[in-house]
Amino acid sequence: MNEMLEISDSKSNKDGIPALIVSPSCIRRIKQLASKQLCGDDQTTYLRVFVDPGGCSGFEYKFELSHDETEIDQEEDIIFANDGARVVVDTESLDILRGSTIDFVQDMMRSSFSVVDNPQSESACGCGSSFAVKNFDANPDNH
Questions:
Q1: Closest among 121, 116, 89 to 9, alpha carbons compared
Q2: How many CA atoms lie within 13 A of 113 on its CB side?
Q3: Backbone phi, then psi, for 47, in 5-degree steps?
Q4: How would you classify the pairing of strands 20-22 and 46-53?
Q5: Distance between CA 28 and CA 33 in Å, rounded?
């Protein structure tokens, strides 16, 4: 299972950019963590990915593992499911994440979920957790 899994949502992008790409390592890690959760079961655990203002470059990627289904807003959240793993993204964050790859990376210093290859990002800080959005000031939806 080495291929990236492209996951689309019902809101197709006019440029043909996929909603999200979830790496096999991300799916494996969500499933591993779900099987270890004490308060929920494998079927209710999900990874929430969202974008917050902050960080040294303007925006930060945030990740939360949860099993609380009541925290999923049916109006604002989009659920991406593949091979027993779920990723939940709110619609505002999806606008900034569209076309990105959600990955789980391990190196000598840390292991973590990560957003890579974000086509909406024009620059990122050295640690890779914050970024600047392309043409943010020119987009009236961002004000």
A1: 89
A2: 22
A3: -100, 120
A4: unpaired
A5: 9
pTM of the full predicted structure? Answer: 0.79
| pLDDT 10s digits, 72-109 | 999 999 999 888 899 999 999 999 999 999 999 998 88
- For residues 74 and 70, give the distance between their C-alpha atoms in angstroms, rounded to a whole number: 10
Q: What are phi and psi for residue 133, nearest 5 degrees? A: -90, 140
Q: Beta-carbon neighbour count of residue 97 at 10 Å? A: 23
DSSP3 helix / strand / coil % (the chain, rounded to 5): 20, 40, 45
CA 72 – CA 78 distance, rounded (Å): 9
pLDDT at 128: 58
Helix (H) or strand (E) holding 46: strand 46-53
Sign for the CA dihedral angle at 96, 19, 26, 1 comes to: negative
